[in-house]
């Protein structure tokens, strides 16, 4: 098998709100959109697809579910700069900048539909 691209698809109530959030604050571009659907792309990341809750393209037993318990993580080169940029843009930080004992530095923001976006950088666990 040869994988030619990767996408994550999330079910939300307000597709345009989530699409606008990723476009405005994370540099994604809308590749395709229709009623209840938006496909966003960025050259250096997996594609993100938003589907409106209840849309018939989803299997019937999951149509009414929302994206929950899922987060999108982006590893970035300058976590501190991204933290300050997003705060300056008025994005509410829902998990403040922190460092885990295993060397992960991170913070989280949440889009208008409750989709969690986590920005990450890595350091050696001993701080080097």
UniProtKB/TrEMBL annotation:
Q: So which residues are the signal peptide here?
A: none
Superkingdom field? Bacteria
Q: Which InterPro entries match?
A: Glyas_Bleomycin-R_OHBP_Dase, Glyas_Fos-R_dOase_dom, MMCE/EMCE_epimerase, VOC_core
- Mention any Pfam family matching this sequence: Glyoxalase
Sorted UniProt keywords? Metal-binding
Domain (VOC): residue spans on this chain = 2-122
PANTHER family, per the entry = METHYLMALONYL-COA EPIMERASE, METHYLMALONYL-COA EPIMERASE, MITOCHONDRIAL
Q: Mind telling me what this protein is named?
A: VOC family protein
Q: Which organism is it from?
A: Streptomyces similanensis
């Amino acid at each position: 098998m040869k994988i030619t691209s990767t996408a994550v698809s999330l079910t939300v109530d307000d597709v345009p709100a989530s699409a606008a959030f990723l476009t405005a604050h994370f540099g994604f571009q809308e590749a395709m959109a229709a009623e209840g659907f938006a496909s966003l792309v960025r050259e250096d990341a997996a594609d993100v697809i938003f589907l409106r809750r209840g849309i018939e393209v989803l299997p019937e037993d999951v149509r009414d579910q929302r994206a929950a318990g899922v987060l999108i993580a982006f590893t970035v080169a300058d976590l501190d700069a991204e933290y300050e940029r997003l705060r300056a843009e008025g994005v509410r930080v829902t998990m403040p900048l922190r460092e885990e004992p295993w060397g992960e530095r991170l913070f989280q923001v949440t889009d208008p539909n409750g989709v969690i976006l986590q920005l990450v950088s890595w350091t050696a666990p001993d701080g080097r």
